[in-house]
Amino acid sequence: MLKSLTLALALVAAPVMSATVGDDGLHKAPWIIDTFKDLREDLADAGAEGKRLMVIIEQRGCIYCTKMHEEVFVLPVIEKLLTDDYYVVQLNMFGDLDVTDFDGTVLPEKDMIARWNMMFTPTMMFMPESVPDDVTAVQAAVATVPGAFGKFTTFNMLNWVKNHGYDSDEPFQKYHARMIEAGAFPE
């Protein structure tokens, strides 16, 4: 019991390290995977690692992206989920790197993001384990989260997607409320 309490206190008291910022102005956390941005390949690689594909859209100077990287993603329980259970691919809202969508369309990041009608950063899109060849990422996503959220919402969303909550009759908002009421956030 004392060992468990000591470990729990150490995890809460442990200093959190924020992600570095790359030349493109985006945060570079250790759990973000640098890929060729072919979502079909990324989905296959995620599956091979037993992880879920998450696409995160960010932009230089985004104060909400900074909030997520410095206050939420760095919390040990959330960072562990991102590291252990997710294959995270980062896209730059105004970037020029080519992205290949699930339907085979290839466009620069900024044009792909416009095609998807994404307007906010950060935006997290969570993909199912398999995606048909004739759909876009937006059509395939099992959940899309535009904007910055606190630790409880982020933790619960990561768990809800990981555990296929979208396949149940309980929408995320009800799951989230139930988890908050149960005090399910480990601290």
TrEMBL record:
Which superkingdom? Answer: Bacteria
- What keywords are assigned to this protein? Signal
Query: Which residues are in the Thioredoxin-like fold domain?
Result: 47-130
Gene3D superfamilies recorded:
Glutaredoxin
InterPro entries named in the record? Thioredoxin-like_fold, Thioredoxin-like_sf
**Coiled coil located at which positions?**
none
For this protein, the record's Pfam families field holds:
Thioredoxin_2 (PF13098)
Signal recorded as keyword: yes
Signal peptide feature range: 1-18
Protein name (Swiss-Prot/TrEMBL)? Thioredoxin-like domain-containing protein
Could you tell me which species this protein originates from? Answer: Loktanella salsilacus
